[in-house]
Amino acid sequence: MFGKRALTAVAAVGLGGASMLTALAMSGPAGATSNSASAPGVTATTVTVGQVDDLTAPLPGLFKSAEDGTQAYFNYINSQGGVNGRKIELNAQDSAFNSAQVTSETQNMAKNDFALVGGFSLLDQAQVPVINQTGVPDVAYPLSIQLSNNPHVYSPSPATSNAWPEGALKWFKSKYPQAVKHVGILYGTDTPTEIAIQNNVNATLKALGYDITYTHGITATTTSFLPDVLKMKSEGVQMLYESQLPTQQAATLAKELQQENLKVINVEIAAYAANLPQLAGSAGQGMYFAEPYSLYQGEDASTTPSVATFDKWVKKVDPGVFSSTEPVSALYGWTAAQLFTQALKAAGQNPTRASLTAALNNVTNFSANDLIAPGNPAKNIPPSCWLLAQLNNGKIQRISPSPKSGYTCNPGGNHAASGWKPQTR
What we know:
The protein has helices spanning 7-12, 20-27, 64-78, 99-112, 128-134, 145-148, 167-175, 192-207, 226-234, 247-259, 276-280, 305-317, 328-346, 353-360, and strands spanning 46-53, 87-94, 116-117, 138-139, 153-154, 163-165, 183-188, 212-218, 239-242, 265-268, 288-291, 387-392, 395-398, 414-416. The protein is of the alpha/beta class. It has two domains: 7-157 and 301-360, Response regulator (Rossmann fold), CATH 3.40.50.2300; 163-291 and 384-416, Rossmann fold. Helix 3 (64-78) packs across helix 12 (305-317), helix 4 (99-112) runs parallel beside helix 5 (128-134) and helix 13 (328-346) crosses helix 14 (353-360).
């Protein structure tokens, strides 16, 4: 399922066919006395990386937060002098929600930029042929199946359509043994990836003994769920498990549940946002959040220093970032930039794509200083730890079994599809 990366092929990218050992020697501190233009996008004073985001379509500003988060982390690092005397610059481009444009922009970046970092696009599968042909490293949170399993891609928080976290689901089953027999699900149908991910979610639920009573596909432009609420009420749904509903849609759904007096255990993942309590009002009371990341929009700032740092710098780039359509993309832009920067520091005074790849292959545990649950970027193993929070009295706060900072790993684990195995690079 997972292809192996030939070291000679990687070394050849931007190195004129030099061997891996030669590349590392050329880029390491012992082999360099001053900065040089050692690879595409690398000069004596700068390192430029590329990023493709859905900025203007299918919804205006959809993943602008990814650019904000990536830029914010580079601003933070550059304020400390950059990496090995070089400032990091971001070349961010709009996909225009057009596959041909995604491909074209990625080709330009593979030719002129050192790596791809922090991109967020529903059409990122259009990058795959270019990435495979050029071997340009891609440090990002992929949204497509094709990219999530690609050997050139390193995610700060690996997630594939072939593995889904079980920990929180085990906890909910123990707490609500009757409700898990009557589960309702709404899921995205805008892309094949959303459907594939939901299929894996459903498989995980069933493997753990959940019974899905009602399921229905929706789109990003769905503005009312009243027909779904009425059907769920008639079919006796007692729990909602929503892995894909963004903040505004989750708030609308909560209000319509309240309107029809359908009381359910409401478990959300993508809906977490600082403005959700205001959007949902009293209808959001008791809503659960099972997350693979800290409460990064300020709630955990006093207990997790990396949250305070993230909040400070990302708001400098965009004060309204947490009111955007998909604020979580800011977190993944920041953590992708942090993973890239960690590898860049280890890649030597004059880095090459080969030395960057070698450094990324050594990152087997990454949490961005507890901003996200620890995963294994090198082997593409998703996090198995998690955080539980709840909306009570207008505030989203951690609740037991989550600690005051960090994550709970018991229960933990991932439900893997048949044949799934860690990445071999």
